[in-house]
Design goal:
Helix content is 45%, strand content 9%. With 339 residues, it is α/β, with parallel strands linked by helices. It has a domain at 157-308: Rossmann fold (3-Layer(aba) Sandwich), CATH 3.40.50.1400. A 4-stranded parallel sheet has the order 4-3-5-6, sandwiched between helices. The protein has a two-stranded parallel ribbon with strand order 1-2.
Length: 339
């Protein structure tokens, strides 16, 4: 299960997609009427034309890069896994119900469906909403089969090995590598903190052991970065992290990617590598926001070279890693997803 995309680059389709995405209470977590006013009264109408242009800049003959690459992952995985594989999106199509219905029709005796949210790290606006939406569809339609869900895999060795090997070929001539993760409002971090007194409150909170880490997006992002950088023997002064895709005026996780891209050339960083580990499939946020907009910011600030390392997509090691994730040890129980 991946994020999803508009059906086309037409403004009306992009607006419809933005409405579904931003009306999710786990994305914009404000009361319904306020969310309705913000999304349908302001955000969606204002952003849809620009978003449509952005999608057109990365659209392929096969359609949305995210959809195309997710289908390619499905096909590659089906070559090494006997059980049937369907894909779904959290927003747009194909929906979880589409996938469930196809499986039900083709396999009348179906006993269990295993869901893999294609998000390595836990966040209420990504992993959690995908898992809970699939569970809701499963319950509402009273399917007879069980629904099991794969836990976040930010620290799973096979995922980390695949990520590291995707980076390794680029480590020839560079000044710095930036791990750019999708951003989150700080309030999402506070909400996910089961202790209510650790995240963003304790000094070096991501380094101090806490039960909160099981659901802390920031901790998990930093853990992924440090393990991968360590395995690649990247000196600590040659890598850092930042968070992209900020929306609105609230405080989001810092530092902001766009700000750091503008600052780095003045710090002597002229040859920059960027990797986006929160995404396993290249999409608008990587192909347009980073490869086009991010590069422009960096180069205009005095950078000399900007290289975006592709997402894992259908890298063979990643395909095999997904296959290994689909085992009993990786499956969550209800309490893990719902805290």
């Amino acid at each position: 299960m991946n994020l999803g995309s508009p059906d086309s680059t037409r403004v009306k389709d992009v607006r419809r997609y933005l409405n579904e995405f931003l009306m999710d209470e786990r994305v914009i977590d404000v009361p319904y009427l306020l969310r309705l006013l913000l999304v349908k009264g302001f955000i969606s109408p204002l952003r849809a034309p620009g978003s449509a242009r952005a999608y057109r800049s990365v659209w392929t003959k096969g359609g949305s890069p995210l959809i195309v690459l997710t289908k390619e992952l499905q096909n590659a995985l089906q070559e090494i896994i006997e059980e049937p594989i369907e894909i779904s999106m959290r927003y747009g199509s194909p929906s979880p119900k589409d996938a469930f219905e196809r499986l039900k029709q083709n396999f009348p005796g179906l006993e269990e469906v295993i869901l893999l949210p294609l998000y390595p790290h836990y966040a209420m606006s990504s992993y959690e909403t995908a898992a809970e939406y699939a569970r809701k569809i499963h319950q509402e339609n009273k399917y007879n089969f069980r629904l099991s869900i794969i836990a976040p895999y930010y620290d799973q060795s096979d995922y980390l090995d695949a990520l590291a090997e995707s980076i390794r070929p680029y480590l020839q001539h560079y000044d710095h590598i930036l791990f750019s993760y999708h951003g989150l409002p700080e309030r999402h971090i506070y909400k996910a903190d089961v202790t209510k007194q650790h995240c963003l409150k304790v000094n070096n909170c991501c380094e101090v052991d806490s039960p909160a880490h099981a659901w802390c997006y920031r901790h998990q992002c930093l853990a992924t970065m440090k393990i991968v950088a360590g395995s690649l023997q990247i000196p600590v002064e040659k890598y850092s992290y930042a968070f992209q895709s900020r929306l609105g005026r609230d405080e989001w996780l810092k530092p902001y990617t766009a700000v750091r891209l503008k600052q780095m050339p003045a710090e002597g960083i002229k040859k920059l590598l960027v990797v986006c580990p929160a995404f396993v499939s290249d999409c608008l946020e990587t192909l347009e926001e980073m490869a086009i907009e991010g590069k422009e910011i960096f180069m205009q600030a005095g950078g000399e070279s900007f290289t975006l390392i592709p997402c894992l997509n259908v890298q063979p090691l990643w395909v095999r890693a997904v296959g290994k994730l689909l085992n009993r040890e990786s499956i969550t129980d209800e309490t893990q997803v719902e805290k």
